[in-house]
Design goal:
Strand order of the largest sheet: 3-2-1-4-5-7-6
Number of domains: 1
Order of helices and strands: HHHEHEHEHEHEHEE
CATH topology: Rossmann fold
Number of strands: 7
CATH class: Alpha Beta
Strand content: 15-25%
Distance between the termini: 33 Å
Radius of gyration: 16 Å
Length: about 210
């Protein structure tokens, strides 16, 4: 996106909360691939989508810095709960510190471990909303594991589904691009769900279970 247009958008939406701005900066200074943080525009969209869906129980796959978890939690009711899963145990202290930076963090339960194993701990139809933003190579596995856990009328939101435009390249695909392509094809062919890809940032797919 043109930087001028991006700046215009950011100046015409709700401001980025100070605690999230600090997390964004800390992630870019301290972590490899700090750009993986959802950021201002996507973060405000995640909050609003969550408010619209109004989940009582939600799941996030791929916590990273905890930025998106706090955006989702911000949009949830006070008595709702968000479970978030991160496989990199070296990020645990950083994440927990960030979750404590805002009162919304009390709605969040952090799981350190394998996403598919954590998904298996939920009952079928238990989840109202899932946000997928983890290993792109495993997106189809995440989708197949989590879909039964989402209630009818519930939502799955998947990030990075345009993968920086690599999905339309004709050259040999990386394992990550191949994973995103396989996921997109799987969702497109799934008659059990409604779906739309929003070309925001790196692509955001909204999926509603019929």
């Amino acid at each position: 996106m043109d930087l001028r247009l991006e700046s215009y958008i950011e100046s015409h939406i709700d401001p980025e909360p100070p605690h999230l701005r600090r997390i964004n900066r800390a992630a870019n200074l301290r972590l490899v691939n700090g750009r993986m943080v959802s950021g201002h525009v996507q973060g405000r969209l995640l909050k609003m989508l969550t408010q619209m869906i109004n989940p009582r129980k939600a799941l996030e796959l791929g916590t990273f810095a905890g930025y998106s978890a706090l955006c989702i939690a911000e949009g949830m009711a006070d008595d709702a709960e968000l479970h978030t899963v991160e496989i990199d145990d070296e990020l645990e202290d950083f994440i927990r510190g960030n979750l404590c930076s805002d009162p919304c963090g009390r709605k969040v339960t952090l799981h350190i471990g394998d996403a598919v194993e954590v998904i298996g701990g939920f009952a079928d139809g238990e989840l109202d909303m899932v946000f997928i933003d983890a290993d792109k190579r495993e997106y189809t596995a995440y989708y197949e594991a989590v879909k039964p856990k989402v209630r009818r009328g519930g939502y799955i939101i998947a990030d990075n589904t345009l993968w920086d435009g690599h999905v339309v390249e004709q050259s040999k695909h990386s394992p990550q691009t191949a994973g995103v392509l396989a996921f997109n094809a799987l969702v497109a062919a799934d008659s059990d769900v409604e779906k739309v890809i929003v070309p925001l940032r790196d692509g955001l797919t909204l999926i509603r279970k019929k």
